[in-house]
Write a structure and sequence with these properties.
heterodimer, A: 104 residues, Helix Hairpins, 74% helix, B: 172 residues, mainly alpha, Four Helix Bundle (Hemerythrin (Met), subunit A)
Chain lengths: 104, 172
Amino acid sequence: MIEPGLYHMLFLSATLFFIGVYGFFTRRNLVTMLMSVELILNSVNLNFIAFNKYLWYDKMDGLFFTIFIIAIAAAEAAVAIAIIINLYRSHRSIDVEDAEEMKY
Amino acid sequence: MSGSTIIFYLLAAFTLVSALLAVTTRMIFRAAIYLLFCLIGIAAIYFWLQYEFIAAVQIVVYVGGIVVLIIFSIFLTQQAGEELPKQKPGRQLFAALAAFCGLALVLLQLTQHDFIETGNKAIEPTVANIGNQMLGVDDKGYALPFELVSILLLAALIGCIVIALRSKPETT
């Protein structure tokens, strides 16, 4: 095993990103799709931190991008869960296949 | 091979395995718990990289906020203990194929690319440095995005209240 560096971090975050993409494609429940989106956002954060740590350690821009992404992800999760609960009230289900009034 | 290397590989394996379980398990509550472990693993990787502030923010916001919110919404919208319906194997196969091809493309590009690091003096990401730059108004400061995020959070707060308001039953 070699000493972990930038490539290891990028490998980890790319794998995490595509695990999230796989979950987003296969899941049909809105809460689990939201979980996949959180995984994707976390992999992006890991990427920013890795670049900041290994390439541009004289700046802190990647760190600030990570902080702002975390804040925006929290707001997005709160709004998404409000919408999901409202959808459950009107349809008694949070499956994306059951909410298709606007499809046709 | 030092101890820190072993710790990194253990943390990476832990994070990836719990992420994979979070997107494949059919029990929705277990998926939320695996997501919790995955986020804790990422926070541990931030600690390993010595970005303690980001690790603390990750634990406070993700583990303490978003996962709790997700678990509450599962309780409100799902019959407890019920399994998710089985997915069509064709859809699963194509999703796995698409994800795998994307991952292969990214890793291929990654191995061929040579990154050039800056040679300047490193800045320690301490809380004092972060705070000074975040609220600075000079050309390196982040005061304007900071205020924008605060307005976004206010808008999200009001939006959540408006969406979740139960409309009054119509008097007939």
